[in-house]
């Protein structure tokens, strides 16, 4: 075999090797570009999520400060508490033990809350959830008005709701909820803890969209 023939053979063998190498490098560059694009997209998503979370927390802080300002008087007197946007009132301030009959001082306190809450809710188009809670002690024997603590908490929430309406709160601005002994804020192992758990809370919440009514009104 001549030298010319040997050179042609070597070139023929080298050409596929370089082709394969070029294809491999192209594939690696393409994969690198895809990974880089994925990382950039992920970073953009994380930045957007972080910005959304920051805005949400800023809005919550502004909301808390506005509610605290609106209720400055009752808060200063120590008659209510404010924690995470929830207004807490001790059950002993509002009701006698195992009763849903509102005390006169309890009604007076509710009356003082109506105007600031009405303004606050109106400015934000929110509604007020009035929630009743009890301790875990069974209803006393001889008390035939309530089947259990859940029913007692429901009646107390309804009593507070009606009192707020009677004192000037629009009925469309609030609703009642009952939790009984669920969601305690203190252990039920001491009298002090049980007293803390006997409470009513009021929390401004966003007004739900009336999708059912919109659907019913839509032409068919």
UniProtKB/TrEMBL annotation:
Question: What taxonomic classification does the UniProt entry list for its organism?
Answer: Bacteria, Pseudomonadati, Pseudomonadota, Betaproteobacteria, Burkholderiales
In what residue span(s) does the OmpA-like domain sit?
82-208
Organism, scientific name? Ramlibacter aquaticus
Question: What keywords appear on the UniProt entry?
Answer: Membrane, Transmembrane, Transmembrane helix
Q: Which NCBIfam families match?
A: PRK09040.1 (NF006547)
Hydrolase is among the record's keywords: no
Task: List membrane-spanning regions.
Answer: 20-42
Q: What is this protein called?
A: OmpA family protein
- Where do the segments described as Disordered lie? 185-220
